[in-house]
UniProtKB/TrEMBL annotation:
Record's bilayer topology term: Single-pass membrane protein
Signal peptide residues on this chain, from the entry's feature table: none
Places the protein is found: Membrane
Membrane-spanning segments: 7-25
Domain Hydroxyproline O-arabinosyltransferase-like stretches: 75-370
Name of the protein: Hydroxyproline O-arabinosyltransferase-like domain-containing protein
GO CC terms in record: membrane
Length: 372
């Protein structure tokens, strides 16, 4: 990185505190929604449920007027990643299934547009021709304080500022997401669409969060129990949110109380706060994704998130916390490529896990030069 690059990154970090203060002041003067989606008295009644956590509005997606059917609201799928083997094999599997649901299925009702891997290693890798990629610069050495996820918001800031993105909406996803089926644009009426995480608890940590989301910004319930992924949000909204997300992430990491309280999900809290500061609420979709082995059925989910290890004995019984006689855990392949044709789970293992392994196997069988 040249001297100009170092100067740029130094300025970014140096002004983080000033920027977050600016963002909070601006956001405090903005009109923030304090109700659940569909309860705004100034709008006409909506067909969406007023329950903050709702099922997929299939009737809304399938029985719209002719004009709605003919006009797709395309979104661009974006995934941040390092150049590690661990992130790379997951991105290749994910992109395989993205293509299966778009290029190989042109008549699907999906509103999925383009795809970008935002590579925050600072330099191209050998998969640029396989996966559409934008190369972002990492934070300066030491800025992430050993928490590499802090590169994610900074990578999004660069991409949103420098790349030409045709679609009006963005789906923020992750390498360890497998798309089960085509995804419609679930966002509505200026609201984002997001998955609710049970471990994101703004009310529980209100005293800590008030350092970053002051009283004048509104009730703590304005902070949704979400991370940045999966989220579908308007491109213009994300361009406003992303710098604040970066600044709040850095500020939280520098704050000992916040760092201890939020741990490995700190950046998720930072996105939720940034979204609230800019008055962007979210419709919460429990069916957006499933997380095996805890979610056992595919149901109506769009995404399989394989963040947890799946350990079973040969009778198909879950042995979580203990390495099973059969297992699939992405961390087993942190510095090696998973082999093709992984062994299938024994009888009795839930559908979600079986489907996950089948989909990984199909991808690796069809991706050229797998493991090279």
């Amino acid at each position: 990185m040249g001297s100009c690059g170092n100067l740029l990154f130094s300025l970014v970090i140096s002004f983080s505190a000033a920027l977050i203060t600016y963002n909070i002041i601006i956001s405090a003067n903005a009109s923030l929604r304090q109700d659940f989606p569909g309860t705004n008295p100034s709008t006409k009644s909506s067909s969406l449920s007023v329950d903050p956590i709702i099922k997929m509005p299939r009737e809304d997606l399938s029985s719209s007027s002719t004009s709605k059917k003919s006009k797709k609201r395309l979104f661009h799928t974006a995934v941040t990643a390092s150049d590690s083997i661990y992130n790379t094999w997951q991105c290749r599997v994910m992109y395989y299934w993205f293509k299966r649901h778009t290029r190989d299925n042109p008549n699907s009702p999906s509103e999925m547009g383009g795809f970008t891997r935002i590579l925050h290693s600072g330099h191209p890798d050998r998969f640029m021709d396989e996966i559409p990629t934008f190369v972002a610069q990492p934070l300066p050495d030491g800025a992430d304080q050993g928490y590499i996820v802090l590169n994610r918001p900074w990578a999004f800031v660069q991409w949103l500022q420098q790349a030409h993105i045709e679609e009006d909406y963005i789906l923020m996803s992750e390498p360890d997401h497998i798309l089960v089926k085509p995804i419609p644009n679930l966002s509505r009426d200026g609201l984002g669409a997001a998955f609710p995480f049970f471990y994101i608890e703004p009310k529980k940590y209100e005293n800590v969060l008030r350092k970053f989301f002051p009283e004048e910004s509104g009730p703590i319930t304005n902070i949704d129990p979400i991370g940045n992924s999966p989220v579908i949000v308007g491109k213009d909204s994300l361009r406003k949110i992303a710098p604040t997300w970066m600044n709040v992430s850095l500020a939280m990491k520098k704050d000992p109380e916040a760092d201890k309280a939020f741990g490995w999900v700190l950046e998720m809290y930072a996105y939720a706060v940034a979204s609230a500061l800019h008055g962007v609420g979210n419709i919460l979709y429990k069916e957006f994704m499933i997380q095996p082995p805890w979610d056992t059925a595919i149901g109506n989910a769009y995404i399989i998130h394989y963040t947890y290890g799946c350990d079973y004995d040969l009778q198909g019984k879950l042995t979580y916390g203990k390495i099973g006689e059969w297992r699939f855990d992405k961390r087993s392949y942190d510095n090696i490529w998973p082999p093709r044709n992984l062994s299938m789970p024994p009888p009795g293992v839930p559908e979600s896990v079986v489907t996950l392994v089948k989909m990984v196997n199909e991808a690796t069988a069809n991706i050229p030069n797998w493991g090279s």
